[in-house]
């Protein structure tokens, strides 16, 4: 179960980082009137259509000894980022970015603009309005963003394989372990891990739908 624990660890760190980074980014994308913001929206959504191996390849180049990130990391810490857990986290943050940003944008855009106008009239700044009004009213979107990001990272394969390789206890996640078992014709072992991932994914999705239903009913009743 080393691979499963490593996958949970990776998903936890990626989700924690993304929820901090994605919230202000989603806020800006939802409310900005800059005419060129569609370019940033396209960059954020790129991992949804780009093959994971392509994204992983470019991250591998960037994190290698001749890449910009690799050179910087080598100068600071004495080793490159490729084939390390830290490298997996960085690549996974970018790969899972749209799964965190887009649910937040959808929730932010549903908020009645009159509430935001009232907040400004009462003297609240953007930061206070975001914390006291936007985030609480967007709780279903926040829940969805957290669960989808965690579940998506948990099952990553292409980017993880390209950037991290297959180092036991370091970069060998559960999806890589399943692939290895299938390659070795160990279908029983592969099935055990696949069933675990299937069950976890189902529970997470059921959780997000159930919580969102309860939160939505609560908000409607208030």
In short:
With 222 residues, this protein is mainly alpha-helical. Helices cover 81% and strands 0% of the residues.
> What would CATH call the class?
Mainly Alpha
What is the third-level CATH name, the topology? MetI-like fold
Point out poorly predicted stretches.
217-222
> Helix-strand pattern, N to C?
HHHHHHHHHHHH
Outline, from the CA principal axes? globular
Query: Structural class, please?
Result: mainly alpha
Nearest-integer average pLDDT: 88
Number of alpha- plus pi-helical segments: 12
Query: How much of the sequence is in beta strands?
Result: under 5%
Instruction: Indicate the percent of residues in helices.
Output: over 70%
Give your account of this protein's structure.
The chain starts with a helix and ends with a helix. Helix 1 (2-31) runs parallel beside helix 5 and helix 9 runs antiparallel to helix 12 (187-221). It is globular, with a radius of gyration of 20 Å. 81% of the residues lie in helices and 0% in strands. By secondary structure, the protein is mainly alpha-helical. It is built from twelve helices and no strands. It has one domain (2-221): MetI-like fold (Orthogonal Bundle).
Note the topology.
Blueprint: H1 2-31, H2 37-49, H3 52-63, H4 68-77, H5 85-95, H6 97-110, H7 113-121, H8 126-137, H9 139-154, H10 158-164, H11 174-183, H12 187-221
Helix pairs in contact: 1-5, 1-6, 1-9, 1-11, 2-6, 3-10, 5-10, 6-9, 7-8, 9-12, 11-12
